[in-house]
């Protein structure tokens, strides 16, 4: 009885200990994941679980986004997941996205997974036209996207039409020019071929380095009204706060860098920006919803914290991450160099093998031709010998007939002719016999000379036969040598794994000399990058000039016109923000 009560108590206690759970679906830029979460979990618990699953350590750039009544919101770290205004049905869906953007992607993004997530998000924003990108820059960015996906360009693999199903350019750019998909592909492929040797992470970083200079990169826009009721746009990004006209999202009317803002606050729907310089008026504006003010404040606090963090020494965690990233980069670079050397040696071995095979085939053809020539020479020699024998027999027969004719002539002369008529007839026969004998003698002499000539031709044919046999022997000896060379060359690829032994003996414990050498290489790469940037700008201008004739002016959007005006004035994203500082602050009047 007591045992039954104890077992029921233990079962009920186990039943009480099982926590209640709910299902969450997390969507990244290229995958989806589902997790079972406890009802008591806070936003940080779910966020940390996602980061651990992805292997992401640079967590400060990212957040979990969801939508409330057509308004974007971010999961708060210190608040329970179920306490947020999320739909009741399961699975509850959140999007894992970059919430804050770096000022300099190359310096701040350390992990390869971080770079990849930023690359996918920025690429989608450009293709969806949430970030304005001029046509020539769109083509260049597309070429880096192709390099990241397909690797090095190979004309035998990447044939005409291989990008037909790829979405690489914004529809606005495609519609702006009278160009076929084949013409766009040709221009993208021309730049793609120049990126040979870049790994996926390098191509994605080049993409981000170009994209971060676009005016709308990393800017979150919000519709606001000033005290006068004028409709404006507020832009929040890594550099500060910017005020725009609703029709011009490229060039701000005025900017407040984070280091010149003293305080940001809101009360209900009214938002207040207090500049550090007390001589400058406080800027106030109203947003449509209280929830939007909360979101603006979140973005302001996060971007300001990162702005100040960048201007301090790196934390121990970041230093360790950067050191690991440098070591990993050096290791990958050494591995790529080793693979490149092996690939080069294999290609050289294959070229040598192909050359030897080609030479062997050539020698075989020469041997076949020589053999055929020898057979023809033997046949010719046999025919000449047979002809000479026939001619010799004919000469003997003619000589015999000539002798018989001579005998007949002598017999006729010795015969007595009694009558004069018989004598005359006999003389005539004798004369005819003499002429016949003379002709026989001449024919015999001619046949004798022809027999001599045939004998001489026979000797020459036999000499040609002897030379042909000698040449065949030489070719046979060469082919045997070539076959031995071919077998030794064919064995080369099996010996190539010996490079693995060399690579395995390498230690990845980098010494000071290695790091100094790596630093020198990085400095050299920086110089090369500056030269490439100049060359890149020239290429962009060249492409812009080339396709300008195909532009349809009537299809230009307002942002296209504004971008062209900014380019003609020499305005860019960075110098626009710095202008107010150079001109001196005055009271704000917007």
Automatic annotation (TrEMBL):
<dbReference type="GO" id="GO:0003779">
    <property type="term" value="F:actin binding"/>
</dbReference>
<feature type="binding site">
    <location>
        <position position="294"/>
    </location>
    <ligand>
        <name>a 1,2-diacyl-sn-glycero-3-phospho-(1D-myo-inositol)</name>
    </ligand>
</feature>
<dbReference type="GO" id="GO:0005634">
    <property type="term" value="C:nucleus"/>
</dbReference>
<dbReference type="GO" id="GO:0005737">
    <property type="term" value="C:cytoplasm"/>
</dbReference>
<dbReference type="InterPro" id="IPR019748">
    <property type="entry name" value="FERM_central"/>
</dbReference>
<dbReference type="InterPro" id="IPR019749">
    <property type="entry name" value="Band_41_domain"/>
</dbReference>
<feature type="region of interest" description="Disordered">
    <location>
        <begin position="563"/>
        <end position="590"/>
    </location>
</feature>
<dbReference type="InterPro" id="IPR000299">
    <property type="entry name" value="FERM_domain"/>
</dbReference>
<feature type="coiled-coil region">
    <location>
        <begin position="519"/>
        <end position="560"/>
    </location>
</feature>
<dbReference type="InterPro" id="IPR011174">
    <property type="entry name" value="ERM"/>
</dbReference>
<dbReference type="InterPro" id="IPR018979">
    <property type="entry name" value="FERM_N"/>
</dbReference>
<dbReference type="InterPro" id="IPR011993">
    <property type="entry name" value="PH-like_dom_sf"/>
</dbReference>
<dbReference type="Pfam" id="PF09380">
    <property type="entry name" value="FERM_C"/>
</dbReference>
<keyword id="KW-1003">Cell membrane</keyword>
<dbReference type="GO" id="GO:0042995">
    <property type="term" value="C:cell projection"/>
</dbReference>
<protein>
    <recommendedName>
        <fullName>Merlin</fullName>
    </recommendedName>
</protein>
<feature type="region of interest" description="Disordered">
    <location>
        <begin position="447"/>
        <end position="466"/>
    </location>
</feature>
<dbReference type="InterPro" id="IPR008954">
    <property type="entry name" value="Moesin_tail_sf"/>
</dbReference>
<dbReference type="Pfam" id="PF09379">
    <property type="entry name" value="FERM_N"/>
</dbReference>
<dbReference type="InterPro" id="IPR035963">
    <property type="entry name" value="FERM_2"/>
</dbReference>
<keyword id="KW-0832">Ubl conjugation</keyword>
<dbReference type="InterPro" id="IPR019747">
    <property type="entry name" value="FERM_CS"/>
</dbReference>
<keyword id="KW-0597">Phosphoprotein</keyword>
<keyword id="KW-0175">Coiled coil</keyword>
<dbReference type="Pfam" id="PF00769">
    <property type="entry name" value="ERM_C"/>
</dbReference>
<keyword id="KW-0966">Cell projection</keyword>
<dbReference type="InterPro" id="IPR029071">
    <property type="entry name" value="Ubiquitin-like_domsf"/>
</dbReference>
<dbReference type="InterPro" id="IPR046810">
    <property type="entry name" value="ERM_helical"/>
</dbReference>
<dbReference type="Pfam" id="PF00373">
    <property type="entry name" value="FERM_M"/>
</dbReference>
<dbReference type="InterPro" id="IPR011259">
    <property type="entry name" value="ERM_C_dom"/>
</dbReference>
<dbReference type="InterPro" id="IPR041789">
    <property type="entry name" value="ERM_FERM_C"/>
</dbReference>
<dbReference type="InterPro" id="IPR000798">
    <property type="entry name" value="Ez/rad/moesin-like"/>
</dbReference>
<dbReference type="GO" id="GO:0005886">
    <property type="term" value="C:plasma membrane"/>
</dbReference>
<feature type="domain" description="FERM">
    <location>
        <begin position="22"/>
        <end position="311"/>
    </location>
</feature>
<keyword id="KW-0539">Nucleus</keyword>
<dbReference type="InterPro" id="IPR018980">
    <property type="entry name" value="FERM_PH-like_C"/>
</dbReference>
<keyword id="KW-0472">Membrane</keyword>
<dbReference type="Pfam" id="PF20492">
    <property type="entry name" value="ERM_helical"/>
</dbReference>
<keyword id="KW-0963">Cytoplasm</keyword>
<feature type="binding site">
    <location>
        <begin position="76"/>
        <end position="79"/>
    </location>
    <ligand>
        <name>a 1,2-diacyl-sn-glycero-3-phospho-(1D-myo-inositol)</name>
    </ligand>
</feature>
<dbReference type="InterPro" id="IPR014352">
    <property type="entry name" value="FERM/acyl-CoA-bd_prot_sf"/>
</dbReference>
